[in-house]
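FIELD: query
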Amino acid sequence: MKLTHEGLTLWFGTPDAPAPLDEIVARSDARLVVGVHPANPTNSVLVRYRVDGGIPQSVPGRELRTDYDRQAQYFVVDFPALPTGDLVEYSPVLSCAGRQVPPSKIANAFPSKFRLAAKEFPPAPIATRRTPQGQRFAPEMRFVAAITVRVDRQFVGETPGGVRIDFFAREGTAVGPDFQGRVIPGSSDHMIVRPDGIGVIRVRAAIAADDGAMLEVEEVGSIDFGPDGYERAVANDLPSESPLVVCPRILTGHPKYKWLNRVQCLGIGRTRLDDDIVAYDVFAVTAGKLTS
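FIELD: result
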């Protein structure tokens, strides 16, 4: 595929710039090479993509080589591991000095795509793993869904209990092996950042499944903003990426998902506040057998 706009040219899916086009790709090995012309030290390439029609995300490219005879540069883009989903739609974008190819109308249409290889679920090695001294029970974890939410922030400021910052869901997806749905806009997270830089969060959310089920979600958890997290929270300048751990409780009346009412869930992930995105994977955790 070759695109030209505003004096810039971009191509991929060619012998010199291989890319996945309408093919099946391993979940941890998706990459493409993008060729651009003319070569310029200010050129930058990123790939906008979405999984199963979800929230658009982006991954930057890094310069691979320059062909000075052809005035062509090549960038390589490695997708992150994609443990969930089936269809990946994407659009490479070249930017240089305020110009862009392809234009936003085409880039936002995600004209290229590939499919992810079937998921593999190897048996958990808990039973054969050496048990730490003193441990009596082995947890059993079942993957429920990958949650990705784009949020709006409301900075409240310092309070007697810490720095208050509220988050409200603008849009979001929940995708799992047997479950797909969307996070209802307006779902909220009220966070207090403590003096040690830990953000204590309380979430009230609703998820609408594609099959008509409604799930109510309550979560408590924490975000580690680092030793200077409180000072950064006061300045309303939190770090872009921070580790997140939550403990969701899920309630529903739908027969297919009533088993979730009986389990405690654990969510682990990261915030990407520069993109206003919170992403985490949710697991149902149950107590396994005695380890001895």
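FIELD: remark
The chain is about 5% helix and 55% strand.
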